[in-house]
Design goal:
It is built from eight helices and 24 strands. The protein is an alpha+beta fold and 427 residues long. The strands form five sheets. It has a six-stranded mixed beta sheet, with helices on both faces. Strands 7-8-14-11-10-15 form a six-stranded antiparallel beta barrel. A six-stranded antiparallel β-barrel has the order 16-22-19-18-23-24. The chain starts with 6 loop residues before the first strand and ends with a strand.
């Protein structure tokens, strides 16, 4: 079997009407992944909904509700082969109430296209999208200036938008001079897969070519082994089988592991007996693999969703309290000390209390705006101290970015998102 090309996750981010889904649809259509027949069917459906021109967006927006609202709600995934990579495209929603998906989506991305519509230029959300990508640790960002057809394919308009975005990039610590800006039209197919004949002044890559210009992702196999548990099954003849995705490191058969925090908070030790993926038994699995495993010494009562299976020699900390950088996204009033919402971290959901608002910071520079603010409102970024009410496993962004990010939810809405920067371990 030929060695598979390395996988790269590419996220498309942008304001709600910037045309992200249209670019992605065009990419899939022009590269032959979506057939002419499927496209014709989607076009007819778009016209029926009074949404002519939305057919490319429909390729990604599979959900009926999304079609009728013309909005991307959840994350959609499609694969594309380029000469260098197997690309998984994540089309992340731009809408405010979908920022939660945006955060979880970006956290899995190796590279990102920030899509800006040429006629509209920079939108209020553009800064937020950049900050989120930065917070999520997405280092490779390309700017796609879309809808060039709507501004007569003019180079002057492209340069004006490029300059506006350049200022924002500098603000979040990205050098505009080493960033690629692509002039394109998702609707008309300019510079998506084929070079545009309408913009002879543009000398840069197409969207498709840019995919291969991103540096190859380095799998986090050098980090300690961590596998957050998604579900636990009881399988006759085998026993307890936790399943989940290994987020970092390498798991080997015979490896001594620890399940944390477990029911007690001190965890259970065991040994990996078998590792299975796609119905075949493997000697080892690594970061990025979804597996089902059986652990000698770990029974049904010792493990549940939200636990983390880790290398016993280098276990994940159970935290007494932690310091994090958070951004308030959508709180109905203001966030103050004593607030106790639910924190979603890897597969765990644990109530945690804000015990100190240390400082409000400028998201673009990290500089302190105000020490010990009384409260935080939407859009604020701050350094806070948090105490889990219950047992929580967590690492710092520096130690392991895959087990450091979280979202804060309350009454079904995402209130804030953040990442852990310091921890105090439980004694």
């Amino acid at each position: 079997m030929a060695k598979e090309k390395p996988n790269m996750n590419v996220v498309f981010v942008g304001h709600v009407d910037a045309g992200k889904s249209t670019i992605v649809g065009q990419l899939l259509f022009s590269s032959g992944i979506v057939s002419e027949q499927e496209m014709a069917k989607l076009k007819a459906e778009a016209e029926k909904h009074g949404k002519a021109g939305f057919e490319f967006a429909y390729v990604m927006d599979k959900i009926k509700e999304e079609r009728e609202r013309g909005v991307t709600i959840d994350l959609a995934y499609r694969k594309i082969m380029t000469p260098k990579f197997q690309i998984t495209i994540i089309d992340a929603p731009g809408h405010r109430d979908f920022v939660k998906n945006m955060i979880t989506g970006a956290s899995q991305a190796d590279a990102a296209f920030l899509v800006i519509a040429a006629p509209a230029g920079v939108q209020p959300q553009t800064t937020e999208h950049l900050w989120l990508l930065r917070t999520a640790g997405v280092k490779n960002i390309c700017i796609a200036i879309n809808k060039m057809d709507a501004v007569g394919y003019g180079e002057d308009k492209f340069n004006k938008v490029k300059e506006e975005i350049g200022k924002l990039l500098t603000g979040v610590g990205i050098k505009p001079e080493s960033t690629t800006f692509i002039a394109c039209s998702g609707l008309k197919g300019d510079n998506i897969v084929k070079k545009s004949e309408n913009m002879s002044w543009y000398k840069g890559p197409t969207i498709m070519e840019q995919m291969d210009l991103f540096p190859a992702p380095e799998p986090p196999t050098n980090l300690p082994m961590r596998m957050p548990v998604q579900d636990v099954y009881e399988i006759t003849g085998i026993g307890t089988v936790p399943v989940g995705k290994i987020v970092s490191g390498i798991m080997k058969q015979g490896m001594k592991v620890k399940v944390l925090p477990g029911r007690t908070g001190t965890g259970t030790e065991g040994e990996v007996k078998t590792i299975e993926a796609h119905h075949e038994t493997l000697p080892q699995a690594e970061a990025g693999d979804n597996v089902g495993i059986n652990i000698r010494g770990v029974g049904k009562k010792d493990i549940a969703r939200g636990d983390v299976i880790c290398d016993a020699a280098n276990p994940i900390p159970v935290v007494e309290e932690f310091i994090a950088t958070i951004t308030v996204i959508n709180h109905p009033t203001v966030l103050a000390k004593g607030y106790t919402p639910v924190f979603h971290i890897h597969t765990a959901q644990v109530p945690c209390q804000f015990i100190e608002l240390i400082a409000q910071i400028d998201p673009r520079t990290g500089a302190v705006v105000k020490e010990h603010p009384d409260f935080l409102k939407n859009g604020d970024t701050a350094k806070v101290r948090i105490k889990p009410i219950g047992n929580l496993c967590l690492e710092t962004q520096k130690e392991n970015p895959f087990t450091s990010k979280f979202s804060v939810r309350d009454a079904g809405a995402t209130v804030a998102a953040g990442m852990c920067t310091e921890i105090v371990k439980k004694k």
